[in-house]
């Protein structure tokens, strides 16, 4: 076991890389076999390139978890982890970050630091984006929605979790 740069998450849970007795990275094996998704958490992203590369072959074959992912942004109907893909229908910059609506159904939120990192990608309406993370039901959380606010929100926390197509 190799502790992460951030040894604990905000809930006090241990963050570490687990190695199998033969020296293979457990997360890499799970991702490669289609039993998990690659993620980068906080500053613990040193192995992100390795995990995302391991995911690519299973993803291309559409095996296991990738049989149902990514889901269309317009089909999001519940909170929880998801890999979503949709067309950009609106972008709204705020002081806190950037909101990108996909298919007029789900909003991606990129905090200002991340929005600055991806600013040079020149996204436009109609372009496909893919994102992964935890979808939040704003209607359930807030009780009502503001005009133009999408019910479903996915906060993108790492550049690794966002791809343009």
TrEMBL record:
Alphabetized Pfam families for the sequence: SNase (PF00565)
UniProt superkingdom: Bacteria
Gene3D superfamilies from the UniProt entry: 2.40.50.90
Segments forming domain TNase-like: 6-68
Signal peptide: none
Protein name as it appears in the record: TNase-like domain-containing protein
Organism: Marinobacterium maritimum
